[in-house]
Amino acid sequence: MSEELLEKIRESQTQEQSEKEESSEELTRYLIFSMNDGCYAIESETINAIVTELYVYPLPFVPHYICGLVNQQGTPFVVVDPMIMMNYEGQKSSMLILVKDSTENLSLKITNILDFYDVGKSQFIDLPDSTAVTCFSSSFVWNDTEVLVVDLKSIIQRIETDFHNE
């Protein structure tokens, strides 16, 4: 009887060990935020700062989704409203995510901060090719809600393309 019990304990430990190995997937932390009524995410390592109530200096002759510039400690950041870029209603919030980038000083207008969340590679869902999702690389599920992951490179490429076309 004790041998059967020991065997069950060994099996249980082996199963727990294999579950730990499976769950040892590398996680990446994302900031989940809202824009209008949708949920979106950006990798937290790409965030320089989150600010509110900065004056936005308007710019002439820029694409309609560029709201202007903000000055953060002497550094200008271009303010982009991704909702307008995707042909949705612009956001009324003054909250911005200032993005770390070695070549571009970009900020994204957002509505609200929701959470920081760790995501494993296996949790990502590929998006279908569509012009509606060109600002996003993938999605994942958080609190039973699909969260679209912002693709900063696509946003920067879109800005560059639109400037060349105007």
Model description:
- The chain has 166 residues and is α+β, with helices and mostly antiparallel strands.
- 23% of the residues lie in helices and 40% in strands.
- It is elongated.
- Strand 4 and strand 5 (75-80) form a beta hairpin.
- The model has no long low-confidence stretch (mean pLDDT 85).
- It has one domain: Beta Barrel (OB fold (Dihydrolipoamide Acetyltransferase, E2P)).
- The chain starts with a helix and ends with a helix.
- It has a six-stranded mixed beta sheet with strand order 8-1-2-11-10-9. Strands 3-6-7-5-4 form a five-stranded mixed beta sheet.
- The protein contains three helices and eleven strands.
- The protein has helices at residues 2-22, 82-85, 152-165; strands at 27-35, 38-43, 47-51, 66-72, 75-80, 95-99, 106-110, 112-120, 125-126, 136-142, 145-150.
How do the helices and strands line up, and which of them pair or pack?
Layout: H1 2-22, E1 27-35, E2 38-43, E3 47-51, E4 66-72, E5 75-80, H2 82-85, E6 95-99, E7 106-110, E8 112-120, E9 125-126, E10 136-142, E11 145-150, H3 152-165
Parallel strand pairs: 2-11, 5-7
Antiparallel strand pairs: 1-2, 1-8, 3-6, 4-5, 6-7, 9-10, 10-11
